[in-house]
Design brief:
The chain is an alpha+beta fold. It has 4 helices and 20 strands.
């Protein structure tokens, strides 16, 4: 190589080095495809689980508790024996009432016979009219006494029956509030609380502005999905069963309730849940992952990767969100590759490098 050619080669090498240094580097991004699909229109809220029925079991007679027929937390059937109160005092009272009834029945029969005899005698003037009236009055009084005695027997039978306390509804028992050996007082002491949890209810409130849409679609047996508070995971699916007849003027909301079969005991009374009330399904909705949509001074926008590998800014119009996805009315087309991760490191027109394994899979609205 001659000395005159050396400076030229040095300048050429410097020029190539500067060209490589000045070319922009590609930013690695993750992308997903915009798609059209059926998406349910949902109203979200926070709900509370409550039993369909709650019964506080009390004794209807006073006595000593002798036996408990279940364990705390058991499921019980309607009519199942829960408690036994000492029945001996009630059996004794029944025996006494029956004995009094038998005595008065015998006396009433005898009085009726006397009254019948005096009725014949008074016709023949063997007795006075006053004597007959006295016998008739005695017979009538004893007949009334028999009716009163019959009522006393029926009441004694009720008390004896109430000494056996049965479950008024089917459900799950709570903790035992009175132990055997204690005196329980009629209609005063709580023995146990039963909650009906099959089925079970979830109550929640929605803004009053949503009431018109709910009433519009309510005839369709609206579906309600619930899951852990703050999460989109669905634990159970039920149907809307109740819309309150007035709006709470303090909060501007209306109370709703949904019913769930709850056969797996996934829902528990008092639990807080995320609620999604589905009004209808929007066909061919254009959806993108919510993390693709950003907000700037000019409104919502996202980045679309063109065929030349550059990311271009596209203003978009957001209709609503559904779970982890956003429904758009305009701004992108189905099949466009939108950037879902790495937007903060790029500007419009910047070359990007799509990370391996992204971009080919469609948007999964079930995630």
């Amino acid at each position: 190589m001659t000395r005159s050619a050396a400076p030229f080669l040095l300048l050429l090498a410097l020029g190539c080095s500067r060209g490589r240094a000045g070319s922009p580097s590609r930013v690695p991004v993750t992308i997903a495809r915009a798609e059209q699909r059926a998406v349910p229109y949902e109203i979200t809220a926070t709900g509370t689980v409550e039993p369909r029925q709650t019964v506080s079991v009390q004794a209807q007679v006073t006595g000593v508790l002798t036996q408990v027929g279940f364990r705390e937390g058991d499921d019980v059937a309607a009519g199942q024996v829960l408690f036994q109160i000492d029945p001996r005092p009630f059996q004794a009272a029944l025996d006494q009432a029956q004995a009094i009834l038998a005595r008065d029945v015998a006396q009433a029969k005898n009085a009726q016979l006397d009254a019948a005899r005096y009725a014949d005698l008074v016709k023949q003037d063997y007795v006075t009219k006053q004597d007959y009236d006295e016998k008739r009055a005695t017979a009538d009084a004893l007949t009334a006494t028999v009716r009163a005695d019959s009522a006393a027997v029926a009441n004694a039978e009720l008390n004896r029956g109430w000494a056996t306390v049965r479950a008024p509804i089917a459900g799950r028992t709570g903790r035992l509030l009175v132990r055997p050996g204690n005196l329980v007082r009629a209609n005063t002491d709580q023995l146990v609380v039963i909650n009906q949890i099959h089925p079970i209810l979830v109550r929640f409130a929605v803004p009053a502005q949503s009431l018109a849409e709910i009433q519009r679609y309510r005839h369709n047996r609206l579906s309600v999905l619930v899951g852990p508070s703050g999460q989109d995971t669905a634990l159970a699916s039920g149907v809307l069963t109740f819309v309150d007849n007035s709006v709470d003027t303090t909060t501007g909301t209306v109370l709703l309730k949904a019913e769930f079969a709850n056969q797996e005991n996934a829902l528990w009374p008092g639990e807080f849940l995320s609620v999604r009330l589905q009004l209808y399904v929007q066909e061919k909705a254009l959806v993108v992952p919510s993390q693709a949509v950003m907000t700037g001074q000019q409104g919502a926008y996202l980045f679309v990767v063109n065929q030349d590998g550059k990311a271009q800014t596209h203003p978009v119009t957001v209709e609503r969100t559904s779970g982890a996805f956003t429904i758009l009315s305009q701004g992108v087309q189905p099949g466009d590759q939108v950037v879902t991760d790495g937007q903060l490191r790029i500007v419009s027109g910047a070359p990007v490098e799509v990370k391996a394994g992204t971009g080919d899979a469609p948007v999964d609205a079930d995630q």
